Amino acid sequence: MTRLEKNTFKKLTDISLLIRKRTVITSFEAKIPHLGSCLSCVDILVYLYFLELSINPEKFEDIDRDRFLLSKGHAAPVLFQVLAEKGFFSLSELKEFGENGSFLHEHPPKPGIIKGIEAATGSLGHGFPMGIGMAISAKIQKKDFNIYALLSDGECNEGSIWEGALLAPKLKLDNFIGIIDYNKWQATGRTKDIMNIEPFVDKWQSFGWHCQEINGHNFDEIHEAFLNAHKTVSKPSIIIANTIKGKGVSFMEDDNNWHYRTPNNHELESALAELSTDRKK
């Protein structure tokens, strides 16, 4: 495995911890749910924005930038935190999160309203095929940028996902990388109990994708997966990232009540106490 340099690994770990704290605080203050779903994909988003994506916040509309689509749009609260930390907008703007009239809410708005947002997503199953459309467009225009989409596992119940999964290999879209936040839950229950998607790796491979399965909280494994994806020619890539819903806060981890719950005062204090401890992740 190609490991990250120690300093880089520490930098990403520190940013993830910071983002987790801010996401919990924001959920408490704004009473906005989806906290568990946000915490499961923090490490993936931090790696993408701080090491992978070719995006400059100062030139966020650059025609040659990489494109990222949050297909699991309900994780927008954590994406906003990452965008602010990256410098797309100021941290002070996040104070209006969840307020009436604010565009900083449960899902990303349409492009042109918040810097760094490429598409309005939230109705599941849309961001992934939109990304494939962008990948097709880039190929037609002979552009070298890449397109990334982050999906949820529950989202893979949608037919539009599998229509896109059929099309992308046919068109040899090696400029597209999908990442699945596989936390094993969806809104109302275990993914395997509602619509079993296993054998997940076999399904993607049988459709013609370069498919990898990793620990979505291990930066070395995330790093290796993207390196491998970029080496793949004439195939789209999908990374199945095994994650834990509510990752980082012990009483939220793998507890689906945190799909819709927001923390009370005591829970906020307990969560921040845990996140302030230099725990081994």
Account of the 3D structure:
The protein has 281 residues and is α/β, with parallel strands linked by helices. Helix content is 41%, strand content 12%. It has 10 helices and 7 strands. The protein has helices at residues 6-30, 35-40, 42-52, 76-86, 127-140, 159-170, 191-194, 200-206, 219-231, 265-275; strands spanning 67-70, 147-152, 176-182, 185-186, 189-190, 210-215, 237-242. The protein has a 5-stranded parallel beta sheet, with helices on both faces. A two-stranded antiparallel ribbon has the order 4-5. Strand 6 (210-215), helix 9 and strand 7 form a beta-alpha-beta unit. The protein starts with 5 loop residues before the first helix and ends in a 6-residue tail after the last helix. The mean pLDDT is 95.
Spans of at least 5 consecutive residues whose pLDDT stays below 50 are none
Number of strands: 7
Q: In DSSP terms, counting alpha (H) and pi (I) runs of 4 or more, how many helices?
A: 10
Category by helix and strand content = alpha/beta
Radius of gyration: 18 Å
Q: Strand-residue fraction?
A: 5-15%
Q: How far apart, in Å, are the first and last alpha carbons?
A: 19 Å
Mean pLDDT score: 95
- Quick one: biggest sheet? 5 strands, parallel
List the secondary-structure elements in sequence, H or E. Answer: HHHEHHEHEEEHHEHEH
Q: What spatial form do the alpha-carbon principal axes imply? A: globular
